[in-house]
Amino acid sequence: MLYIHQFPDWTHFRFDARKVVNALGEARLQEGKLIGAMETCGFQELEQNLLIQDIVSNYAIDGYTLDVAAVQKDLENLQTAGNSMVRNYMGAILNAFNPITQERLFAWHASMGENRVASFRQTPSTVRYQQGEAQLDFDGPNPERLEPEMEHLVQWIESAKMDGVIKAAIAHFWFITLRPFADANGRLARLLTILMLARSEQTTRCQFSLNQAILEKKEEYFKALNEAQRGNGDLTDWILWFIDALLYSMSSTKEKIAKEQKRTMFYNRHAGEALDEKDQKLLTALFAGELPESFTAKEVAALVNASHDTALRTIQGLISKGILKADSKGGRSQKYSLA
């Protein structure tokens, strides 16, 4: 069986336009709603959290754990950021319309990979990934093909006329199939995708974390890529999977916005209430999802590090202020929630 790059016309990709356009229409609709919500609400903190989440998730997909606090610190001080990966990530978004060059790709790789040599890989590239009982295998193109193949990809990115989301999906697949570097090819493909989506949206803002969606759908992601790499150039299923991941990430952001709106409205409504430290800790945990929406006094006791009776007094005090309510079911398993 041949891999896709072993066909002579392998980059003549095709897809079912009707299926893709239908899915794309929904993605564009949801994207417009999300951008409008972000601009109306002005959630700068949420946007920064999405950036942090996207960077951390990009590495987590490949099995690497980043220090969230360190990433946040570097984002807040880009000029003095100790991690050049964060600077390059933000550079990809803030300078999305700058041409993609070989030098730019080498700089990305130097910041994200372990091999700092400014050149494409000089050895074969093989991937073996165990997924349940199945093993996903893939061999990249031979090293001598990489220079002209990468020139072709970059030229296509800068000149091809098509919808930006479809273009980002194809470029993602194309780059990760070439596997041009000795390591970090997945992370680089996803960074390239972020740049292309920024071009498509014509914005330097982050409205969703695609990499978080990919991380949560990691098994599907690798399977979709592998099936397309073993195919004949029809990328319909891969593009549909990519759009679905976008929709998933947008939906996740909308849930975060709804929670933030709920929190803001709540504190505005109860601005005059006197809340002690335990009250604040309970409410903060509730809005952060550290407590379930419907919780018990036992869970509150563990949260505030107090006795059951103390937790119950805290809850009853908030009930008297109209902030909490007792759920309908009583007894030893009595639960409470926001009024």
Written overview of the protein:
With 339 residues, the chain is mostly helical. It has two domains: 252 residues, Fic-like fold (Orthogonal Bundle), CATH 1.10.3290; 69 residues, Arc Repressor Mutant, subunit A, CATH 1.10.10. Helices cover 61% and strands 6% of the residues. It has 14 helices and five strands. Strands 3-5-4 form a three-stranded antiparallel beta sheet. Strand 1 and strand 2 form a beta hairpin. Helix 1 runs parallel beside helix 11, helix 4 packs antiparallel against helix 5 and helix 4 packs parallel to helix 8. The protein is elongated and about 75 Å long. The chain starts with 16 loop residues before the first helix and ends with a strand. The mean pLDDT is 89.
Number of strands: 5
Largest sheet: 3 strands, antiparallel
- The domain tally reads 2
Spatial strand sequence of the major β-sheet = 3-5-4
* Radius of gyration (Å): 24 Å
Unreliable spans are: none
The CATH superfamily title of the largest domain? Fido-like domain
Please, how many helices? 14
Shape: elongated
**Sequence of secondary-structure elements:** HHHHHEEHHHHHHHEHHEE
Approximate strand percentage:
5-15%
